[in-house]
Amino acid sequence: MIKQALLLSYAFIAGLSLLVQAGERPNILWLTSEDNNVNWIGCYGNPHVNSPNIDQLATEGFRYTHAYANAPVCAPSRSTWITGVHALSMGTHPMRSRYNIPHDLIKYYPDHLKTSGYYVGNDKKTDFNIGGRKDSDCWDNSAEVEWDKLKNNQPFFQVINSTQSHESNAFGDFQKTKHSPKDIILRKYHPDLPTMRMNYAKYHDAIQGMDQAIGDALKQLEALGLADNTIVIYNSDHGGVLPRSKRFLFSSGIHCPLIIRIPEKYKDLWPAEKPGMTVDRIVSFIDMPATWLRITDTKIPAIMQGQAFLGTEPQPERAFHYAYRTRMDERNENARAICDKQFLYIRNYMPYTPWMQPLNYLWKMKATQAWVEHVESGKASEIEARFFKPKGWTEELYDMEQDPDSIHNLIDNPEYAEVIKRMQSNLRSWQEKVFDTGMLPESEMVKLAAQNNTTIYQVARDRSLYNLPQLMDAADLALEENESNLLALRGLLKSSDIGLRYWGIVGCFLLNDTQSALKCLEDDSHEVRAMAGWLLLRSGDKKVGLQCLEHLLKENSYATLSVLNIIDWAGDDAKPLLPTVQSLKVKNYERKMQLQLLTKYEHKTVAL
């Protein structure tokens, strides 16, 4: 029996070897750029940008018109890519969190490619946002691409990431741009200011640099004679980059360019009749790892959550794309999105926060600074000023065909009742299917995993620890803002389940129920206590509210980041807490919030 198994194993390896020698399996060159949505690429309709190499690739390949990122920022997006499992499903969705996953269950797609005989390289962006494993150890080469080595190690799968279009390249001086600030397509939510236009022009320059890097990689491929047996893929890692795009679930944050060039010898993989054509199939970034495995004849593990969109037998087209946003750096947020080819529906789990919260990194951009100044001066239109105020909307619906800038919310229009119902139902089903780990505050989920000596991924799959259907029902109840739900919300506050108590206090907050807040001041959950303190602060019982929040800060609460966010949202009512904020010994994102608050109120700043 053992001998037979060995013979079969040898036969499989020999078969792979012959396949490679015959050149039947394609090489893959995956070219990624950072932070640019479709609006920054010439072949997607921008006449003012110089992207000749990408545009030429589109004429030689297939341009996808409905490709979307699952997260509108790099770390959770790349976490989803490397595993083929949604970051939201693993607990790796908060920005730069590095929580562990069960690595014995969830392998990385390069692991699977290597077992299938592929040489795998990555130059050099990782940012997988996953703890317990080095980002580099799944690659044969995780440094600068070695072209000669690739030629001698076929078939290969090589990633090259271009950083020229990263958000940081929109920072700094823009007095001498190559592109004219007159030649831009101004988004309808951006004020028409000289600084805004110049920042557009500066990012046009960055896109030109990124396109050149893409062109350089394609020339190297051609020079080595590898173009005829290499599939080339180009896409960005999410949307962006000017304010209200990257980090946001609007089309500007998730709609990405995707172009795939497939040589003639692999024409059985073509997604359309001939090169140069567009493909209107919905492609979700979660689909990419499964697709790369499918077109390399590598077995797709059952744990992957995507659908292969290429191959001799591609899987059926998905009806919807799903996306998510939670904490972005130092700012708390929680929202989900679902879209088809026309409509985008967003579910806001924190409707009491603004869309545009001051964020250390984003506020470095001159366009952001100019927009803020324009709003604060009172010169902004309703649409321009809207995004700096609390949302107020639990739900949003946009027609992406008629309203690509997502500024006309159709949620209250009865004509779209069936669309809304369809979106709500499918989003809910998907959240349950993938075990949405974001229905508890991040700090509580981390605490729960630690208490049970396991990972967030596994907590979410244990109904006794994390009853997702109940949590979602409680969230729906809280977000209705219906006085008739008050008795039920007060009932949630008596639950032994932290998550149900959390959604209970959120509902009471939205209904301004101070009576319930007073009963939550000694709750075991610091997140529940923080919301109760804010409710009391806002409703007039300022002394008790301030005492609650101050006590959490002084005891070095695990919810300190949430408390600091609340102090910002509470505005002047929370100013008495600034001396306590000043005295905190904090690091990382708590430190950034500390500095942001002290700067906001022109308080004495802490030493850097």
Mean pLDDT: 95
> So how many helices?
23
- Give me the CATH superfamily of the largest domain: Alkaline Phosphatase, subunit A
The dominant shape is globular
Low-confidence stretches: 1-22, 604-608
Structural class: alpha/beta
Query: Approximately how much helix is present in the residues?
Result: 25-40%
Radius of gyration: 25 Å
Strand order of the largest sheet: 4-6-1-7-8-2-9
Label the CATH architecture of the largest domain: 3-Layer(aba) Sandwich
Describe this structure in words.
39% of the residues lie in helices and 12% in strands. By secondary structure, it is of the alpha/beta class. It has two domains: 2-318, Alkaline Phosphatase, subunit A (3-Layer(aba) Sandwich); 447-471 and 482-600. Strands 4-6-1-7-8-2-9 form a seven-stranded mixed sheet, sandwiched between helices. α7 runs antiparallel to α10 and α21 packs parallel to α23. The longest helix has 30 residues, at 194-223. The termini are far apart. The model is unreliable at 1-22 and 604-608 (pLDDT under 50).
Could you give a short description of this structure?
The protein is α/β, with parallel strands linked by helices and 608 residues long. It is 39% helix and 12% strand. The chain has 23 helices and 13 strands.
Describe the structure using short key phrases:
single chain; 608 residues; alpha/beta; Alkaline Phosphatase, subunit A; 2 domains; 7-stranded mixed β-sheet; 4-stranded antiparallel β-sheet; 23 helices; 12% strand; disordered N terminus; disordered C terminus
